[in-house]
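2024-03-11 09:14:02 DEBUG pipeline.ingest accepted 1 chain
2024-03-11 09:14:02 DEBUG pipeline.ingest length=207
2024-03-11 09:14:03 DEBUG pipeline.predict start
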Amino acid sequence: MMNKIWLIMLISGISTLIFINPSQVLEAVTQGALDSVNLSMRLVALYAFWLGFFALLEKTGVAGKLAKGLRPLVGFLFPKAEDESNKFVTMNMSANILGLGNAATPMAIRAINSMDDGSGKATLNMIMLVVISSTSLQILPSTVIGLRATHGSAAPADFLVASIIATLVSTFIGICLVKTYGMIGNRLKGRKAKKKALGSLPLMIRE
């Protein structure tokens, strides 16, 4: 689906440019490709460092100790999650806090896989992880700071306070909505179970 969306955007952009300024089509496409490669190479060092850092945390067992330290918070957000899931969730949240969305993705995938109950449906813990990853509380948005620095910003971190406030509010609202959804779902399940139990009783007993 995403490939189709990107293809439509690409064709629309090129078609529009052909009508507006045909001579700029080849230059724009070439320059865009060069800019993307340059940007990718500049961010390689940043992501290589943090991915290696998180790999070391996992190999040395620090990730497990970090998960134990954050167990009360993680336990509240992800009730009944296994220790393996908690470890990957902790590393995912740590990467998001540092603004490393791409580095957080592998941890999220491993956490989701460990939460899978085989039902083919998303559990409440899975939904919570997706919401937290999407709202992405960021104390140090390294990727955005790196992007601003590579484009010559005089103060690449001057948005830090606004970013912390915005992501803190969005994460809080997301957590509240998921918890509310879970409470409503549990109540509905309880009512259905009660009706089913009453429906299985003989008519004389129900009366």
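2024-03-11 09:14:41 DEBUG pipeline.report Residues 108 and 130 are 8 Å apart (CA to CA).
2024-03-11 09:14:41 DEBUG pipeline.predict end
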